[in-house]
# Entry
Amino acid sequence: QVQLVESGGGLVQAGGSLRLSCVVSGRIFSINATGWYRQAPGKQRELVAAITIGDSTNYADSVKGRFTISRDNAKNTVYLQMNSLKPEDTAVYYCNARLRPYLTTNYYDYWGQGTQVTVSS
# Structure
């Protein structure tokens, strides 16, 4: 059973910072990439940031220069450091991992349950 558990969301004033964490656990053979997505009310889920097995990163234009994705392979944990937060960053943030479980040959996408980030003006 693969699980992704996020933490670190909350309420913060505009200009503030938060750090999200996502622990990936279970019978995992390898992780290809991990990322953070967000979904605001009435909007589609969108990619915020992603990091590959080779440590290549990709960011949404709206967060470049403010957010940083990183990971600790030893802990199977991915982080999202969010600085200079804006009210438009308010959303539910979801962790995603593309990974290969033990005893399988394919990679699959797994999702966390989401963590709310609210930025007040």
Summary: The mean pLDDT is 96. DSSP finds no helices and eleven strands in the chain.
